[in-house]
Design goal:
By secondary structure, this protein is mainly β. Among the domains are: 99 residues, no CATH class; 68 residues, no CATH class. It contains three helices and 30 strands. It has a two-stranded antiparallel sheet. The chain starts with a helix and ends with a helix. InterPro entries: CPL1-like (IPR048661). It comes from Rhizoctonia solani. Keywords: Signal.
Length: 375
Amino acid sequence: MRPTNALFSGAILSLAIRAATGFSFDDVPRRAIETNPLFGRTDGSCPPGQYYDNGCKQCPAGSYCPGGKDAKQCDQGQYSGAGADVCRACPDGTYTSQKGSVQCTTVQCGWYGTGSNSGNNRGSTEQKQCGRGFYSPAGSTTCKKCPAGSYCNSSTNCEPSLCQPGRFSDKEGASDCTECAAGTYINRYGSTSCCKCCAGSFQSSTGQTHCQACPEQTKPNGQGKVLVTSNPGSNSAQQCHAFQVGDPGPIPSACIDSSVTLNQATCPATTGPVPTGLLKRSVPRGCSNRKHTMCEVKSGRGGWECIDTNITLDACGSCDNDCSAIPYVGDVKCVAGKCQVATCRKGFSVRYVDGAPSCIPTTKQALLIFERGMN
């Protein structure tokens, strides 16, 4: 006889003797009997958490024993430890696709698990990809849309990627960023829109981080430069023109800086103040003010303007007399229709010949500059 059977027989004999002297099994707690392997039922059944194999034994991990003869494997989406009478559903953010699991696996980032199903006591049996335009951290039960200013171009994104400078995304769930259109730019990461090129600048290409300043223009006589502007958002150098009344004030420097920043700042102002001295009214012919002279605009869009030639620097005394065009001039004014030079450039001094001012070289270096200008 085996030792276990001997012990069992001895225990029964001892209890039988006790019963004869007035002892009852009702005096023994039921749990004490059910959990003691010596009291395996004669039909081969065992208490919950145990199974019968030539005696009651602890239910192995990955299985459950509701009470009876056999241990049963946990199903997909379930797990158990040793001695379990039921299997548990995989917690949210975990899964198992195998039967008989002792633990569940955490869902990877870029994937999601469907979560527990209270109806059948099961959790996720698999993890699923989030897809393009979405992302998720590890252990997720749902995926999130990539926020505006970012993109998710893979099926398994752990986190969104910021749009590069020159590109933007204006909606959630983008799988790629869009290039800034011609006439616009952006020099920041994570942008939701692009900025228009400022007045006095343009951009003919797409996906750019800055604009280009309008080309310089000179006056018809070749002396002096013309103030150049353009409408905000210009996409061609041909859209640049000489400033006239009603045009936006040029402010190109605000849009040609190519430095890149992470700040989600607002776009700079696209127009500046209208330059004083250029607030001239275009008219077909004739001036209402007798003190004004009608002068033709010979650059840009052309036209006519009424000017007080007594004080206007670039039309001093007549429409064609531009005081600022005097070679090597420094500080100059128009007073009573005549150019008055206060200073000349370094190395030059003012001289009046027949009442007309000019700047004459007074140093050797200035003379060399003067001679090169004559050639």
